[in-house]
Amino acid sequence: MQNIFKDKKINKWQFAILAMAVVALAWAAFLGAGSANAAETQTAQVVALNMDETVEATGALETRPFASLAWKTSGVVESANIETGDFVKAGDTLLTLQPESASASFASALADLETAKANLNAIERPDGASVGAARENVSSAFNTWNAARVDLVDELAYNRGGGDDELYSDVITARDDLVNALEEYPLAANTEAQFYYWASRAESLGYIGEYEYAALAPSLRDALDKEDLALVDDILATQAKFEALAKAFAESMNDHDDAVESLQAFGAYEQAADALLDAMESQYGVLVAPSESDLISARAKADSAQASVNNLYIVAPFDGQVLSVEHRPGDTVTSGELSVNLADLNQLYVETQIDESDIAKIKAGNQAEVTLDALPDVVLMGKVTSINPVGEVVSGMVKYKVRVELDKVEEGTFLPLGTTANVTIQVKDEISALAVPIVAIQNDSKGEYVWVMRNDTAMRVDVVGGSIVGDLVAVTGDLTEGETLQIVNESSFQAPNPFGGSK
């Protein structure tokens, strides 16, 4: 639909006077109508209007975000920290239930939350006891590994007669080299060296754990000076050589039982070596960086426990204004019962349906004016932000959804969400046009025309009528603002006198 609004040159009272004049002229013609073909003339002025081309539609006033907050458990309201109209921040506690009024499982949820928080805190911020325990575990694992190595060599020595003598000699030499390397550099006393040893050995063995050892080893390597690094590398090399030779010697034994016993001792040694890596990994998780799986698990447990406890509260999910509060302290509520409506009124919008005949005129960015049925005196401004290109059939007509986002309103302004919103979208900029009273336009076989008084003579001027506003119609033709029009009213019947009597 096309519409005209905002005449910047003619005030409302001037329109009213003009309209009354037109009506008075028409009424005078009606009262004074006489015999057939009687004619009377009146005059009017050519006026100027500033006109817009607009498209009009209706929708509902909405906002985003909007939330209807309900209780997630039953109980008795302990406190209400808000009133209708209050502004709140995300995370603010709006209402609280009495803990003793909630379900029996709530006490268990509280206990679970405390435990989960403690576990998470121990992972993220370990205390002295946790650090001490981790170091003790590594020390104990070193002792177990050393003992297993001694047991392995003793078992191999006991069964040496069944194996390759040359291999046995190599095993003893490798064992001595490893012992010397460990004595040269006391790995058990240097935490940084232990971490590099752990990551490098884990990578070489294809050890399955919580970390990316190939990526971690270089950074741990860089933490050591060259001398310490060479000593740790020597431990890693001599250990690998000792293990390879010990296994090969056990497998070389001719006697089956001897081989089985030797390989069992070798298996116990490998378990002790792996346990040492486990202890070092745990120590790394405490002293440096917890494993991702431990963190995820601990956080999930804490979040789950917190969610259960949060059922006692209604919390604001975003910054906004309280539209309504349904409960007060002492009220008994049930799970799922609505308590608070909350919205951010700084993000108001209207979604409306536009006819297919008008949708091509509308573009994103078009300015729009919105009035509300609930508040006729309120005028909101905004612009088109989105146009859905997929139409839908509404009451037999194809329509397209258009969103108009509104400018911010003054804080504290009452705006009833859901009220009918009348949208006027400006699709063309204002243009200046001349307008004449509708009754001034005549029509014959040549088209539309008006009578213009020029030099005291009525002259025919052809015009083309356009948009209508009130009793005026926009026209194009050889006219000038302020010119006088002659309005001719003709009648072929005798009009009755409405005030009584007849003539």
What keyword list fits this structure?
about 500 residues; Elongation Factor Tu (Ef-tu), domain 3; single chain; four-stranded antiparallel β-sheet; 4 domains; conserved putative lor/sdh protein from methanococcus maripaludis s2 fold; elongated; about 40% helix
Task: Tell me what the structure shows.
The chain is an alpha+beta fold and 503 residues long. The protein has four domains: 12-51 and 431-491, conserved putative lor/sdh protein from methanococcus maripaludis s2 fold (Beta Barrel); 57-64 and 343-430, Efflux pump adaptor protein, beta barrel domain (Elongation Factor Tu (Ef-tu), domain 3); 67-90 and 313-342, OB fold (Dihydrolipoamide Acetyltransferase, E2P), CATH 2.40.50.100; 123-298, no CATH class. The protein has nine helices and 21 strands. Strands 2-11-15-13-12-16 form a six-stranded antiparallel β-barrel. β17 and β18 form a beta hairpin. α3 (128-158) packs antiparallel against α8 (256-287). The protein is elongated and about 145 Å long. Residues 1-38 and 491-503 have low confidence and may be disordered.
State the gist of this model.
This protein is of the alpha+beta class. The chain is built from 9 helices and 21 strands. Helix 2 (105-124) packs antiparallel against helix 9 (292-310) and helix 7 (226-251) runs antiparallel to helix 8 (256-287).
Write the H/E string, N to C: HEEEEEEHHHHHHHHEEEEEEEEEEEEEEE
Please report which band the strand proportion falls in: under 5%, 5-15%, 15-25%, 25-35%, 35-45% or over 45%. 25-35%
Low-confidence stretches: 1-38, 491-503
- Domain module tally: 4
User: How many extended strands?
Assistant: 21
Spatial ordering of strands, largest sheet? 2-11-15-13-12-16
- Helix fraction bin: 25-40%
- The secondary-structure class comes to alpha+beta
Radius of gyration: 46 Å
Query: How many alpha or pi helices?
Result: 9
Major beta sheet summary: 6 strands, antiparallel, barrel
Taking all residues together, what is the mean pLDDT?
84
What is the end-to-end distance?
46 Å
